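User: Sequence in, structure out. Go.
Assistant: Echoing your sequence, followed by the structure tokens.
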Amino acid sequence: MKVSLAIATIGRTAELERLLDSLCTQSYQNFKVLIADQNPLGFLTSSLNRYEGKLQIRHFIIPPRGVSAARNALFPYLDGDIVAFPDDDCWYEPDTLKQAVAFFSQMQEVGSIMGVWGHCLAAPQLNPQDTQPRPLSTYQFFTRGETYVQFYRRAIIEKVGGFDEELGPGTGLPYGGGEDTDYLLRAAKMGPVWRVPAVHLLHPLQNSKQVNKEKLRMYAQGRMKLLQKHNMPLWFKLANVVYPLYRGMTEERSMWNYRWHMFMARLRAFVHQQR
């Protein structure tokens, strides 16, 4: 099976190089990298030159219209049997692609999978029910379902189509999130989605001491727009509002400030939506 990795990037070089370095060490090497570059001309030239002869990379320079539009620009060039959308600041463990391909090969009826992520200081944190592969329900897509843990058969994404360009960072609209879960919800209508804990990825932790209230506000508005788009029931919308408080009470104390501001942002977005 061939894998297509579609990466949208803007404003990052060291992080992108870390991701590409991790791809160089993959135990499974039948993949191609496609990069949607939203930076000024030449911004990534030095970085990408490092990988000449090491990785198959197709580099596309596109206008900065947001992560969803950037990913969509790559869709005509996705020729792999499996497609993934790694963030430009995540990175793969050596067997990430090997494990994803192995699962798809074994479970022909599964159209989409979600891996699990940890950070550089710890292995992925798994709930007891997440130690073995299992099918997921709609509501479970909202927990640790970021785009960079998602892998799809190309046949699925051909049916789903592109990302919703009103959702996600960089659109110029107030909906700075939700594009990842939206895509999962649409893909689930085309075939089963499974959580596969053997597919490990890494991603930086949120800095709990640096609360970007504007970013949290946009994420919250994106989440509420997503819930409205998919006609989620009122109880689930309310659960999404209070969920950060639950996380804040179960995590280390340093995360409380961040979770409190996340709760307030979601509460304001919910109230605004009900007017």
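User: And one key feature?
Assistant: Residues 213-274 form one domain.
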